[in-house]
Amino acid sequence: MKTLPLLILALAAAVGLGSGMVGATTNVPAGMVGIRGGMFKPLFRSTADFKAVAVKPFGLDILPVTNADFLRFVRANPRWQRSVVKRLFADESYLKSWAGDLDLETNEPPDAPATFVSWFAAKAYAQWQGKRLPTVAEWEFVAAAGRSRPDGENDPEYKQSLLVWYSTPSDKRLSAVGISPPNYWGVHDLHGLVWEWVADFNTAMVTGDARGDTGLDRQSFCGSGAVGARNANDFAAFMRYGFRSSLKADYCVHNLGFRCAKDL
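Above: the chain's sequence. Below: its structure in token form.
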């Protein structure tokens, strides 16, 4: 999780929380926490972009999806079993750490985060739950919080803890979810356990819809990766965006999991 491929040459944006939070959310499903609305402030933006984007209230899973959770999904949806899934939707590493289609390996505890799961599979799981994957803006909005304040970027101790984690080799065996303390919003494991899929991961290095964008922001690449950045010191966020930019939707990676979101 902490050791990145050498694809972090092109890095884009980090985020911050804006002022002006709106009221508390209601009707939050069990296992989720309601996130109040606020402003998402991209680190990079062109002169034509808004300085901040409104994030509407939404629900987010308190914990990442676990092996046990995903096992229930593949039992109920056989087409997502390891031996059946189409290569269009998951590469050959899909669920490779499991002992079989419906069996976890001994080094894959039920309460550890599900990994070796493609974006397509994560999206299908979320839909099966009546949910969706969070957007980059939503995920980063919540992940920007420290333990006791929404603006973790202004908490030196919290920022240092992230840098220590990102620079420390990961253990081969992943820990159970929920062990680390929750952040300001009551969400666990946004940092320190696994990377997480987001709905629009493939927009990390473009300025619009990745499927048809011709307006690439050339300053977001290579040596100019921090030019014009709002906060060039947010190294952890640069790492996340760099990792996302290296992914394809069928990739299944040993340190990449996910959690679900829901409109409220």
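The two ends are 31 Å apart (CA to CA).
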